[in-house]
Amino acid sequence: MGFSFHSIHKPFIIAELSGNHHQSLQKAKELILAASRTGVQALKLQTYTPDTITIDHTGGLFDITDKNSLWYGKNLYQLYGEAYTPWDWHEELFAYARSLNLIPFSTPFDETAVDFLEKLDAPIYKIASFENNHHPLLKKVAQTGKPVIMSTGISTILDIQESVQVLKDNGCKELCLLKCTSTYPASPENSNLITIPVLQQAFPDCSIGLSDHTLGIGVSIASVALGAKVIEKHFTISRAEGGVDSAFSMEPDEMKALVDESYKAYLSLGQVQFGIQKAEEKSIAFKRSIYAVNDIAAGDVLTRDNIRVIRPGDGAHPRHYEKLLGTYSPVSYKKGEPFKI
Question: Which of 10, 23, 249, 289 has the most crowded CB, counting CB atoms within 10 A?
Fold first, then answer.
């Protein structure tokens, strides 16, 4: 049986390998081993070459000229040449991930990558935000019949609806949409997680998650409270080692904290609950009730000096307190006895 989003009963955490392997197969395997020890469920690669994404050209938008960019000074072809994962590594990395009980899959960036990943029996396909308008790729992926995860960065709701329709029209039966802010790194302020329940309302047949490029785990944890079932985070052993995505990648201790805390957040959601839970029954004793705080003889006037609203909680309900003041006690009480009605 293949992977299904319907089988997810806790946050599904994906470690994104991306280009942090520094073009070393051994480094890539070290990353996978480190990821497996954090408790993540899945390991994701990216499947492309510079030539399947762009052409070797300079000028205009082919050059990265934003001085705030992590990749300033390169052209697109150079960036992808530095970041891509060689295709002849994939089979070994998939097998290694599986041996560590991780689910390996990838983001294809063109149709040839889909054909290649099918030979590796990829159980899931991921569509990146920058590719979610690539209709030929969407069709190819959908036609595999595998579950699809699609990021929704830099997309209007109409863009998303169009892409979802292309996927469904071509055979996609299980789809997860990830709220995504396509800045690297992203900030909490531009994450706009309140979009997650809106996405769920707009696409009730889809699972919803988060592709998180912020630093730390706070944004991801918050997403679980808003309904995220899937969380994707870039992963590195150490940001100090550098790498194309290292500046916004999670280190092992952080990823383990994300796994642990997101599960706690998920468990805490529970169900709509009012009244007294079984686990709370012993705590009833610590609520307030009416008690005799001095000896009271039958017929004594009840005053603030001889009855009070205090803990524990086995006396009369405090709602009766003000009505009792000035009336006569029907029976006697010793100091420290619960007042009964």
Answer: 249
pLDDT in tens, 128-170: 999 999 999 999 999 999 999 999 999 999 999 999 999 999 9
CA distance 34 to 36: 5
User: pTM of whole model > 0.85?
Assistant: yes
pLDDT of residue 1: 52
What type of residue sits at position 39? G
- DSSP-assigned letters across all residues of 299-312: TPBP-TTTEEEESS
Q: Confidence class of residue 247 from pLDDT cuts 50, 70 and 90?
A: confident
Angle of helix 157-169 relative to helix 195-202, nearest 10 degrees, comes to 40
Helix (H/G/I), strand (E/B), else coil: 11: coil
Question: pLDDT per residue over 66-92, tens digit each?
Answer: 888 777 889 999 988 888 999 999 999
Residue 172, class by beta-carbon neighbours within 10 Å (0-12 exposed, 13-18 middle, 19+ buried)?
buried
Question: Are the beta carbons of 43 and 20 closer than 8 angstroms?
Answer: no
Burial string for 140-155 (b: 16+ CB within 10 Å, else e) reads: bbbebebbbbbbbbeb
